[in-house]
Amino acid sequence: MTTRQSRPLFDASTIPDDLCPIATRLTPMLPGDWRSMRPVIDRERCVKCAVCWLYCPVQCVVEKPAWFDFNLATCKGCGICARECPQHAIRMIEEGA
Ligand code: SF4
Ligand code: SF4
Fold first, then answer.
1. Residue 2 belongs to a domain
2. Closest residue (by CA) to atom 3 of ligand 2?
3. For residue 35, what are the domain limits?
4. How many helices (H) and strands (E) does the chain have?
C-alpha cells in the first residue's frame, strides 16, 4: 500500500491551542483504508443488469467486459449492492478474509 501524505489546510499556528487537532488536518484516508467488509461478485450469476451500479452510493461499481466489479479504494463496504442484486451474485466478506 502506498503511503499518502497529509497536507495542512491552512496556517495551523492561527488555531487556538484548545481545538481538537484532528480538525486542523485534511485526512488522506479513503474508505478502503477503514472498511471492515467488502463485496465479492460471483461472475457466473451476474447478468449485467447494472442494479449494483445504480444503487452504490459512492459510485465505485465498475463495468468489466462480462461482469461488474468494484473499486475497492473507494468502496465503503455498506453492502447495499449485495442487498439489491436480484441475482444474489454479490456477497459481503470480512476484510482480510
Ligand atoms: S446487480 Fe447483480 S446481477 Fe446485476 S450487474 Fe450487479 S452483480 Fe450483476
Ligand atoms: S458495498 Fe456499498 S460502497 Fe461498496 S460497492 Fe457495494 S454499494 Fe458500493
1. no
2. 75
3. 30-94
4. 3, 4
The residue whose CA is least distant from atom 2 of ligand 2 is 78
Residues 6+ apart with CB under 8 A from 75: 31, 32, 35, 38, 39, 56, 58, 60
Task: Give the tens place of pLDDT for each residue, 48-77.
Answer: 999 999 999 999 999 888 888 899 999 999
pTM, rounded to two decimals: 0.75
Question: What value does the mean pLDDT take over residues 14-39?
Answer: 77
Lowest-confidence pick of 3-12, 43-52, 75-84: 3-12
* Ligand 2 center to 79 CA (angstroms): 5
Let me know if residue 62 belongs to a domain.
yes
Provide the domain count of the chain.
Answer: 1
